[in-house]
Specification:
The structure holds two protein chains of two kinds.
Chain A: H1 5-30, H2 45-52, H3 54-87, H4 93-99, H5 110-119, H6 124-133, H7 142-168, H8 171-179, H9 184-195, H10 197-213, H11 216-220, H12 227-235, H13 244-267, H14 289-318, H15 334-374, H16 381-389, H17 395-406, H18 423-446, H19 450-458, H20 463-490, H21 497-500, H22 509-516, H23 523-566
Chain B: H1 2-21, E1 26-32, H2 36-49, E2 53-59, H3 62-72, E3 80-83, H4 86-94, E4 98-99, E5 111-112, E6 115-116, E7 125-137, H5 138-143, E8 164-167, H6 173-186, H7 188-199, E9 202-206, H8 211-218, E10 223-227, H9 228-236, E11 241-244, E12 251-259, H10 265-276, H11 278-282, E13 292-293, H12 323-328, H13 330-342, H14 345-362, H15 368-382, H16 388-392, H17 394-398, H18 415-443
Helix pairs in contact in B: 6-7, 13-18, 14-15, 14-18, 15-18
Classes of the chains: A mainly alpha, B alpha/beta.
């Protein structure tokens, strides 16, 4: 039992971190959900009220429908991108993978305006359709609009996790299948996709839960009859704080955990681990010319669709006045000059905060994944559940909870409150984005065969050394996927940040955009700042892909040398 | 007249001199909902006239700002709260988070329109006035061949179906005042009927008040019900839009108040004085700001065509606004608007479309049966689940108040319970109205 002491300490530390920065602050806010609105006594009457209310029931059904449909649409978008770039010799694979992450970085407000200007009822596309064909298509209205935008926005979760999983499959499996005569769709359907299942399920669960809890998109499309906007609208109304907002928050958290549990059930009883790992994944096949052309066609079409909001953002940032027209009236670089002075401060803050948060996230996520899948600690699964529940906690609730819990707490030597110290923004981002890193790391560890670790230990390596030299390197793809998603999404986080920014000099980019987007004249500069955010985060993503690819090449070459010496 | 101005000028200089001797310095922290375009102008001007002071402007949504002040009150680090909606200040005042301060600057009258400029108890002061009105996108109206709407009742016209946008009163304090103004001006039942007839033409109810000018500016919808500076500043920024005040509107002051236990009380007072000083008032005319000064003298520098409520008595004076009544039923009006319009907009739109279609078909025909059906459908849409007497009763309002009552005050129910009953009734009414209108349609 003694070898469990290390993991036990790590597990307890993480549990403490989650308790202090997630459970307690949130509990302090949502306790209202369990109180009688008149007497303050503990009660469940508010939950009964929720299920009695037709509007809430309708919202629940709508949220469920939108989430399920978004997962399907996101799958259709991601599979070709992931499969083509990981399985075939395909020029520009890293570029495609990077561009595939960009949709996650949707700057608040400006992204919404750009979408409306392109796809809205009177957006560019519909104005053109109306001018030439006399028709217009309501891309952006009702639940279908929400599904369209959500799947464009969140498909990278599936893309990133699926790609990481595809890269992890033992090539011997595929080669055996090919030797036995399988090819094309059959190979993909029967062998490749099932083996990549942990990555796909990780991504799909994230998309499902994220869409179920997402606030930004329904609000941008002014769809109120979904759960997250109902909670938000009730919590943030002036003067009223009725318990229903918090009841809905609790229900969101509960349902998210339920769907996570279901997704884990789907993987149970199957073994996805493959022994052959160190050799660097699979062989890439060549495509025939016409196949290649077809694949490029599909990829370009998909990228055009998913990057169109960013194209709109670019136009908005260079445009003067863009109103009821296909394109802006004229173009200018003035907006970039306007944001130039303030931007450098925002960018350094954002890179610092999001970078730190993502780093903390992968650290926590790797540890949690290890504790959950490699130890027998009692209640270890609850680490996973608790961390994932953060996905369903509205940013406003977390922000208020932090102010309430930490405002009276002074940071030693600094003489200021913990709630107004910039580090608290990093912590908030870490907590909010931890689920992304966690799903990626869990998927990665499921694909590592425990035999490899046992082998290392048999050869005399200590537990710590095994983790450091065997487990982490083998999980690297998943860890990177986690880092990228956490980093990209943390860089545009606003809802908790806006509660916590106590000094303008501490503010991140998203806050800067928010400031500009409060006035008509600020739309261009806001968009320019949004473009800056996308470019910087995109560059960060590209660099991390480059690093990982280079690492893989190095490992491949050493393993070939090893094979040669062996023979 | 000339003499008083002369006198007030001397008086003002004296005050400035008196303050100059008081050493105002250090950091001044302001929590505000105002856009950078406004705060940046004031920050620069104030810092150059008070060299010892540096301004820290924290931009938060009004609701987030209130929550921030409430949560940080135990260890307050904010000096001033600076925002539009008077009701946000009422919330803070009710929580005991503001301190009294009455600005000394001369030349500010007691009222703008029918609204007092400063809080009668002195906890917050107005520095600019704003009123609600109608904003439209000229390209949009031209492309869709729509006339300009100048009064609230114009917006009921079926030609505007699906072309109008507005924010919800629960989301924006100034929107609340517009809704309440119409309710007070026309009476409870007629006022709600009016709002629902207008709302039947809505394309959307936006989540934030800035969503409305944003939608009109980009041409998402053609007409928006907005506060004046959104319309005026959009126009000044070059968008093809224009703005008009309807006859029934209320001018409300935008306010500033000193937060309790302010770390820098002296600088906070100096900033308030600066806001209402001649220099401070003039800054409101900046093309990116465009708010109505509360000092009548400032209007002499305003561009031609700039509305002047102190001269043009028609702006904001048609309704005698009853602040007490509004305050008493504040949360009920918000909840009713959301229940009847925001959350049931699709059903309301469908019912309205059916009624409009049947009415158009009926025109010029003599069919009493169809006319009767349409009238019944209209009555169903207009129906409010709560009558005025109940809505005004303070016990009923207590159910919707944010503070929990003590255990022994007996209340009639929970908010969620009441809202559920409303929702059921409203939805059924809209559905039945649609059926009746379709029935009438089939008769014609």
């Amino acid at each position: 039992m003694s070898y469990q002491r290390g993991p036990l300490a790590v597990g307890l530390l993480i549990a403490l971190f989650l308790a202090v920065f997630l459970v307690i602050p949130v509990a302090k806010v949502v306790v209202v959900a369990f109180q009688d609105p008149h007497t303050g006594q503990a009660t469940l009457i508010n939950f009964a009220d929720f299920f009695r209310n037709s509007l809430f029931r309708e919202s629940f059904v709508n949220s469920f429908y939108v989430s399920a449909m978004s997962v399907m649409a996101a799958t259709v978008i991601s599979i070709p991108l992931a499969y083509f770039t990981t399985r075939f010799n395909f020029g520009g694979a890293i570029l495609i993978q990077t561009l595939g992450v960009i949709p996650l970085i949707m700057p608040p407000f400006v992204g919404a305006v750009a979408m409306q200007l392109l796809f809205g009822d009177n957006g560019s596309l519909n104005l053109l359709l109306d001018a030439y064909f006399g028709i217009s298509i309501p891309f952006m209205s009702g639940l279908n609009g929400v599904i369209l935008v959500e799947s464009i926005h969140y498909f990278p979760f599936i893309l990133i996790n699926l790609s990481a999983a595809l890269n992890n499959i033992d090539r011997a499996m595929e080669e055996s299948a090919q030797n036995l005569g399988a090819s094309g769709m059959r190979l993909f359907r029967r062998i490749v996709f099932p083996l990549a299942m942990p990555g796909f399920v990780a991504g799909a669960a994230l998309v499902f839960i994220k869409v179920f809890d997402d606030l930004g998109t329904p609000l941008l499309l002014n769809v109120n009859t979904m759960l997250a906007p109902q909670a938000y609208l009730r919590i943030s109304s002036i003067g009223i704080s009725d318990p229903m907002g918090y009841v809905i928050s609790v229900i969101l958290v509960g349902f998210s955990l339920l769907s996570l549990w279901v997704s884990l059930l789907a993987l149970r009883g199957k073994d996805y681990a493959t022994v052959q790992k160190g050799a660097g994944g699979l062989m890439r096949r060549d495509l025939r010319t016409w196949e290649k052309a077809g694949c490029y066609g599909v990829v370009i079409l998909i990228l055009l669709l998913v990057l169109s909001p960013h194209l709109g953002l670019l136009l908005l940032s260079f445009g003067t006045v863009w109103s009821f027209a296909v394109l802006p009236d004229a173009f200018t670089v003035e907006h970039y000059f306007t944001v130039f002075q303030s931007a450098s401060q925002y960018i350094t803050n954002t890179l610092l905060y999001a970078g730190l948060a993502a780093l903390l996230d992968v650290l926590l996520a790797t540890s949690i994944a290890y504790v959950v899948w490699r130890t027998q600690l009692v209640g270890r699964k609850w680490l996973d559940y608790t961390a994932t529940a953060a996905l369903a906690v509205p940013g406003v609730v977390l922000g208020i909870g932090y102010l309430r819990t930490f405002h009276g707490l002074e940071v030693p030597f600094l003489g200021q409150s913990l709630a107004s110290w910039w580090v608290i923004i990093v912590v908030a981002m870490t907590i909010r984005r931890l689920p992304y890193a966690l799903r990626a790391c869990v998927a990665a560890i499921q694909q590592v065969d425990v035999m490899l670790e046992e082998a290392a230990e048999n050869l005399g390596a200590t537990k710590g050394r095994t983790v450091y030299r065997i487990v982490v390197p083998l999980m690297l793809g998943g860890i990177l996927a986690g880092f990228v998603t956490s980093f990209a999404t943390a860089s545009v986080e606003l809802s908790a940040t806006i509660m916590l920014v106590a000094r303008e000099s501490d503010a991140p980019l998203a806050y800067g955009i928010y400031e500009f987007m409060q006035s008509a004249a600020g739309r261009g500069p806001g968009a320019a700042l949004g473009v800056v955010a996308v470019v910087f985060v995109g560059l960060g993503t590209y660099l991390s892909h480059l690093i990982i690819e280079r690492g893989k090449l190095r490992r491949e070459s050493t393993s070939i040398v090893a094979e040669e010496t062996a023979s | 007249m000339q003499l008083t101005r002369y006198f007030s000028l001397i008086f003002g200089i004296l005050i400035c001199a008196a303050q100059g001797t008081q050493a105002v310095e250090g950091k001044l922290t302001i929590v505000t909902s105002f856009p950078k375009d406004l705060t940046e102008v004031y920050k620069q001007a104030f810092e150059s006239s008070h060299p010892g002071v540096s301004l820290e402007v924290l931009n938060k949504k009004t609701t987030a700002g209130i929550k921030y002040l409430q949560e940080t009150a135990g260890n307050n680090s904010t000096d001033l709260f600076w925002a539009s909606a008077p009701d946000a200040f009422e919330v803070l005042k009710g929580d005991g988070l503001l301190v009294q301060y009455r600005p000394q600057a001369p030349g500010i009258p007691d009222r703008v329109g029918a609204f007092p400029i400063n809080d009668p108890d002195g906890f917050y002061s107005g520095f600019a006035a704003s009123g609600y009105g109608i904003m439209w996108n000229e390209r949009y109206l031209k492309a869709k061949d729509l006339p300009v709407a100048r009064e609230w009742e114009d917006l009921k016209n079926p030609v505007y179906h699906g072309h109008v946008g507005m924010s919800a009163p629960s989301r924006s304090g100034t929107t609340h005042l517009t809704v309440e103004t119409v309710l007070q001006g026309m009476g409870w039942d007629a006022g709600w009927a009016e709002w629902k007839e207008i709302a039947g033409n809505f394309k959307t109810v936006t989540e934030r008040s800035f969503g409305v000018p944003d939608g009109v500016n980009s041409g998402q919808f053609g007409i928006g019900i907005v506060i004046d500076f959104f319309g005026l500043s959009s126009k000044a920024s070059g968008f093809p839009v224009d703005y008009v005040y309807p006859t029934v509107t209320t001018l409300v002051p935008a306010n500033i108040g000193i937060v309790k236990n302010a770390p820098n009380q002296a600088a906070a007072e100096a900033f308030i004085e600066f806001l209402v000083s001649e220099t401070g008032q003039k800054l409101l005319l900046d093309p990116k700001i465009q708010r109505l000064p509360v000092n009548p003298a400032t209007y002499k520098d305003a561009p031609a065509g700039f509305p002047n409520p102190f001269q043009d008595q028609s702006i904001g004076a048609a309704v005698k606004f009853d602040l007490g009544l509004s305050k008493n039923r504040y949360n009920i009006v918000n909840s009713l608007f959301d229940a009847m319009i925001t959350y049931r907009l699709d059903d309301l739109q469908a019912a309205t479309a059916a009624i409009q279609q049947a009415t158009a078909k009926l025109a010029g025909k003599d069919n009493p049966e169809a006319a009767e059906l349409i009238a019944r459908a209209r009555a169903l849409v207009a129906k409010v689940p709560v009558d005025e007497a109940t809505a005004n009763r303070s016990e009923y309002n207590a159910i919707f108040k944010k503070k929990r009552k003590t255990a022994d005050t007996k209340l009639e129910g929970r908010q969620a319970e009441i809202e559920q009953a409303w929702d059921g009734e409203i939805k059924a009414n809209y559905e039945q109205a649609k059926e009746l209108a379709e029935q009438a349609d089939s008769l014609l």
